[in-house]
Amino acid sequence: MTAATLETRKTRTAMLALLGAAAMLGLGYAAVPLYELFCQVTGFGGTTQRATESEASLAERMGQAAGGKQISIRFDGSVAPGLGWSFRPEQPTDTVTIGQRDMAIYVAKNNSDQPITGTATFNVMPVQAGAYFNKIQCFCFTEQTLQPGEEVRMPVLYFVDPKALDDPNMEGVEQITLSYTFHRALDSAE
């Protein structure tokens, strides 16, 4: 093997290793958004679904055709350490008819002496219910800024998809828990 051939092979190997490292780095950065997309589409890990008004209307008609079965919804609210807010549901539980729209109200208050921007993360338990819990409107879709001492009521408009009645994994589920945790937004001052 000549020196030129050996040098070409070394260069090619180095380029392939560099290309492999760049691909791994790119996959590392893409993993979080791809995982979030996967969870939103499938309801994996208790991730709720987003729905339109027309989808809600269809679900309501399907729910009526299914006999108006009801399910209990439990609401939970918490804040991450250091946020400086209090956050709770106005009503801890509600019984809703599957397929019908309903509204839950959460109350948030900034207990600090400075404006704070927060963002909510959410999930549904049991996890198999995430694919059927649909939010039409929610404060969790945008960041929320509260001024010092400000208290706000935050609505969530939702429904439980009647398709849950046909899922064997949902048999025996009598209550769904919708849980939110508020965190300080990344661009909010510490």
Short note summarizing the structure:
The chain is of the alpha+beta class and 190 residues long.
Tell me about this structure.
This protein is of the alpha+beta class and 190 residues long. It is built from 2 helices and 10 strands. It has helices spanning 3-42, 53-65; strands spanning 49-50, 70-79, 85-89, 93-97, 102-110, 116-125, 133-138, 144-146, 151-160, 175-184. The strands form 2 sheets. A 5-stranded mixed β-sheet has the order 1-7-9-5-3. The longest helix is centred in the first third of the chain and has 40 residues, at 3-42.
List the helices and strands and how they pair.
Blueprint: H1 3-42, E1 49-50, H2 53-65, E2 70-79, E3 85-89, E4 93-97, E5 102-110, E6 116-125, E7 133-138, E8 144-146, E9 151-160, E10 175-184
The geometry reads as flat
Number of strands: 10
Q: Going across the biggest sheet, name each strand in turn.
A: 1-7-9-5-3
Subunit organisation of the chains: single chain
Distance between the termini: 62 Å
Strand content: 35-45%
Tags for this entry?
5-stranded mixed sheet; 10 strands; 190 residues
